[in-house]
Amino acid sequence: SAQAFQPSQAPLLVFTSGAMGSGSSKVILSSDVASIFEPGEKCITSAAFDEYATAEEFFDMLLAWFKDVKSPIDGSAPKALQVIDEVPGKEFTTVASWDGDSCRKAAYIYTIHNVPKTGDYVTKRKVVYDKASLTISDINSSGGTDEQKHVMTATGRVLKN
Prior knowledge:
Layout: E1 3-5, E2 29-34, E3 42-46, H1 55-67, E4 80-87, E5 91-98, H2 100-106, E6 121-130, E7 135-143, E8 148-157
Antiparallel strand pairs: 1-3, 2-3, 4-5, 5-6, 6-7, 7-8
């Protein structure tokens, strides 16, 4: 039974394969698949992963991944990380601070959204979830300590079959 992710990028960091990741992953993903929930939209689907985790276990691992913020460039931890506005069973927000000078340098090579001209680079991610429907919405923004700009909103849904 295939699982579908609508059109969140988050699961790419958990189960990746081929061109999407390291190639050492155990579950194959397909990108650019027509969404069955939002006509005209695209999504990422995976092969069944029943032998590795239940849908609920994967969902819990995905929530833990959202709280454990790491650099998408090198996997390093931010210099500061807070989990704020947590409503157990419903939502939380992570605020990660990164060295601004390092981010400004890296932005010459990598796409890093809204890097401020001075000061630290801050990413903010609000995660709203519903375990009953196995749905997660990820609203993220970035910028400086005083000004954040919206980067994207993604919704993920884990299907059981």
